[in-house]
Amino acid sequence: MKVKQVILRHIKMRLKFVFTTSFGSFLDKEFLLLEAKDENGLSGWGESVAFHSPWYNEETIKTNWHILEDFLIPSVLNREIEHPDEISQIFSNIRKNNMAKSTIEGAVWDLYAKQKGVSLANALGGTKKEIEVGISIGIQKNVDELLHLIEKYVKDGYKRIKVKIKPGWDVEVMREIRKHFPNVPLMADANSAYRLDDVDRLKALDEFDLMMIEQPLASDDIVDHAKLQKQILTPVCLDESIHSYEDARKAIELGSLKIINIKIGRVGGLTEAKRIHDLCEKHNIPVWCGGMLESGIGRAHNIALTTLSNFVLPGDTAASSRYWEKDVITPEVTVHHGVITVPDKPGIGYEPNLEVIQQLTINEKSFSS
Ligand code: OSB
Ligand code: MG
Prior knowledge:
alpha/beta, Enolase-like, domain 1, TIM Barrel, binds 2-succinylbenzoate, binds magnesium ion
């Protein structure tokens, strides 16, 4: 296949609620959408999950635009590509910038699946017809508001509750949650808010029977996480620290984790995500698919990836309506009793709504060879 034209769009969408993590808050969510067209006018779509500010990792919307415009798009345009797995090879001389790489790689995967007439899930080798999802709840003003949200999402049927934590919003909050919801599958995500010195506080979480604690320590660390895991019972799950297959291999070898949260953007695309999935499967390390407050395009990619066999824990891909008044895809992503039915149409299986996308676009540029 050849990509003959790329359209890059900078989109701005308002979330229905402020989402607060240990590193910052989101209300206006900006992201890039990339449309890759082949010679027959068929389109594949990808989303950049980089944020406006370099809080979660070092990438931003602007750095992604720059890397895509000046390096990645020119190296893909008009090039003969037999399989999307080749993309990561083509990009191998460009260091990091994983979210930028993933944006165009995801569009090529979607285009490839559409050309073959199969779903993206099938193209990746996924077999599940349904996937289970949980929900990620940001830091709230007070515990009562958090308990109300948990009650609502448990009623909705979400398969597990993830609560964002930080020093001062952790042990007592978990105690209150457990008082009201003794049996709900529960986990915590610290987004790197602690240091190894905080081990006593993290050990105090052991009594709440958490499924896991996600990324307690520094965003680039795998050494201290190994030391921490030896001292706490709660399984450590890494998010920010795992950027590649090699990171995953080393972290498994060191004992830095028992679970991995795979995010397609963080690891540079679907091909690398699948490699990490396969490695974890071999080592009996369960994985799940994280979320980055994506629009429906990114969400569709997450759903397809989650159909692989070792995605055995519920992911963070909640329903479109949880985040947006109107999503950019038709139909929107819906969740029934914590389950998403995987679309079987070719490619990502949801139709980008060009009219809505047009309205939300701040900047747009077309590239052709
Ligand atoms: O660490 O998983 C994270 C949102 C923004 C940045 C980082 C994270 C998150 C979430 C929300 O937890 C996941 C979602 O609902 O898309
Ligand atoms: Mg996380």
